[in-house]
Specification:
With about 350 residues, this protein is of the alpha/beta class. About 40% of the residues lie in helices and about 10% in strands. Strand 1 and strand 2 form a beta hairpin. The longest helix has about 35 residues. This is Sulfotransferase. Keywords: Membrane, Transmembrane, Transmembrane helix.
């Protein structure tokens, strides 16, 4: 377009630039709006996808390798040289210690798994320490308890004390772990605590075990004594005679709730150094225990346990209203729970 020249006097000349086309400006605004719209939509879709994953992704379909794919430096467990206040590590003072926590749900094989770890000469796994409410009442009490344990000032029958190469404990998801996950994740990452997730693929079997164990707390079938774990075939046979009745109306909702809790824990602890295990895999393939020892940076040993499995064989032998349960789960996403899985 031509420039406009205005003459005000003999000494002043003002040159006005050409006017920009309104069509061009509109096109620029339109393209900018489209780019912004596409970006906002992509962010929203990503958030919706992440949210849906937490809500509906069941742990039976979460297939992961033994080790999470992490940066190389996170594959190496952090080592510590604690100085306990209650004893002297003596000649082991220069021996490095790794910190770990077994994160699981009740009746998922964590007790059996912990006895396997404790059969290692250099491992001290100190049980379900947060079953005591005062220790998990708030984030401060949790941190205080963790500090005491990882400083080797926590004494149980499993403690190897001076020469422990790995020290840890069991932590159930419903014992403050989910409620205070932000503080706990920060602690794990700061202190170099490795997380060992242990779940059951077959949540129906877990439900049978939970209900049976709850019943025995009151019935005390073994000569008036309640035992969550047994060490003989005779004791296992006695406890397995009780057949719980499962509420088939709430069954699917209960199974979904278990899945959501496990998926939420995995999401919350995504930034930690972790390994994910399944009880059924450990039962069928004991070489998985080698993965665990390598994960903790331990010398390899043959791990053993004297615990005996209670509920063996098909679930139809262990559920009172089997026909109702079978009918409820047939043709659903949980139908595979009805079959023998190991």
């Amino acid at each position: 377009m031509a420039e406009y020249i205005c003459l005000f006097n003999k000494d002043t000349i003002i040159i006005k630039p050409p006017k920009k086309s309104p069509i061009l400006l509109r096109m620029i605004v339109l393209v900018f709006a489209m780019v912004c719209g596409v970006y906002i939509c992509s962010i929203c879709l990503k958030q919706i996808s992440t949210h849906s994953k937490i809500k509906i992704e069941g742990i039976q379909v979460i297939e992961r390798p033994s080790f999470e794919i992490e940066p190389k430096q996170r594959q190496i467990p952090t080592v510590h040289f604690p100085h306990p206040e209650t004893f002297n590590r003596a000649e082991c003072v220069h021996n490095p210690v790794r910190y770990f926590a077994i994160l699981s749900m009740q009746r998922s094989g964590s007790g059996w798994f912990e006895t396997l770890l404790n059969s290692h000469v250099n491992v001290s796994s100190n049980g379900e320490i947060f079953s005591v409410l005062d220790r998990r009442r708030n984030a401060s009490s949790i941190i205080k308890t963790l500090d005491k344990l990882y400083n080797l000032d926590w004494f149980t029958s499993a403690s190897k004390n001076e020469c422990s190469a790995a020290v840890g404990f069991k932590w159930m998801l419903n014992q403050g772990l989910i409620e205070h996950h932000k503080d706990i994740v920060e602690y794990f990452n700061t202190r170099g605590v490795s997380a060992i997730f242990l779940f059951r693929r077959n949540l129906l079997r877990r439900m049978v075990s939970v209900l049976s164990n709850s019943y025995d707390r009151h019935a005390k079938l073994l000569n008036g004594t309640h035992k969550s774990h047994v060490h003989s075939e005779e004791e296992a046979e006695t406890l397995s005679k009780y057949k719980p009745r499962i509420n088939s109306t709430l069954l699917i909702a209960d199974l979904k709730e278990m899945e959501i809790m496990a998926a939420r824990a995995l999401e919350y602890f995504n930034s930690t150094r972790r390994i994910i295990l399944y009880y059924e895999d450990l039962m069928k393939n004991r070489t998985k225990l080698k993965d665990v020892q390598e994960f903790l940076g331990l010398p390899l040993m043959e791990l053993t346990s004297h615990q005996v499995k209670i509920h063996k064989g098909p679930l139809s032998d262990h559920i009172e209203n089997w026909k109702d349960v079978n009918k409820t789960l047939t043709s659903t996403e949980y139908e595979n729970f009805l079959r023998v899985d190991y």
